[in-house]
Amino acid sequence: xxKKSKTSLIKLQKGLSxxxxxxxxxxxxxxxxxxxxxxxxxxxxxxxxxxxxxxxxFPTILENIIxxxxxxxCKKIVLLGDxxxxxxxxxxxxxxxxxxxxxxxxxxxxxxxxxxxNHDNYIVYLSKELGVATYDRSLTVDDYLxxxxxxxxxxxxxxTHNIIMGHExxxxxxxxxxxxxxRYKAFLHGDIGDKTFTILPSVSPLxxxxxxxxxxxxxxxxxxxxxxxxxxxxPYALDIGSAIQKFPNLGELRGI
Length: 256
Fold this sequence. Notes:
Elements: E1 8-13, E2 16-20, E3 25-27, E4 32-35, H1 42-48, H2 58-72, E5 76-79, H3 92-107, E6 111-115, H4 123-130, E7 133-135, E8 138-141, E9 144-147, H5 155-158, E10 162-165, E11 170-175, E12 181-192, E13 195-199, E14 210-211, E15 234-239, E16 243-246, H6 250-253
Parallel strand pairs: 4-5, 5-6, 6-7, 9-10, 10-13, 11-14
Antiparallel strand pairs: 1-2, 2-3, 3-4, 8-9, 11-12, 12-13, 12-15, 15-16
């Protein structure tokens, strides 16, 4: 029996879709998947501090990337920063995880590119060994500026209207009718100032994120979002591998 794909596209704007139910977006004209914030090696970092997890998270991270690549037959993928977790030189777990991921993508004829995030110091040692193109700040694909999000935009980047970024690890917090709080990773999409932003949830199951409908906008992680008015931005709550639900804009969700 052939397994039926549950992957589908949710249109955000012309040429750009969420890949449901995965933490990825798809740039259609360039056949390019974009994911952010893998944080490979975080599990080992937690264990070194005495927090032991019942099972490895790497297979989940791999599934969150490989499944949409397979279902869409993507020819390219951009890893949008924080591929590894340690700020310093890659540890053994990070070396192993990145090598395994890149090897798998290569076997699928999907060409990876890396944009450095704030956790990706020394990532160049890995990318050179593996023959992966790596960009210090950003990369333009079609009409979209792909940018990790931990830096302010420079003059050239600021001229771009459409920005896809990570770094923020957005989530939303919702109360049900019994008053019980539920938290979900979320995509954010909409106009902020004179630009249209698409902000990706983290791929790592260990980094749920910041509840953007609860926290003050002045406490956003990214310097290009901090203090901006995000009330008109739409969240898409994500239950990875299961479902995506579009919610009212953040202005309507504040405090719920």
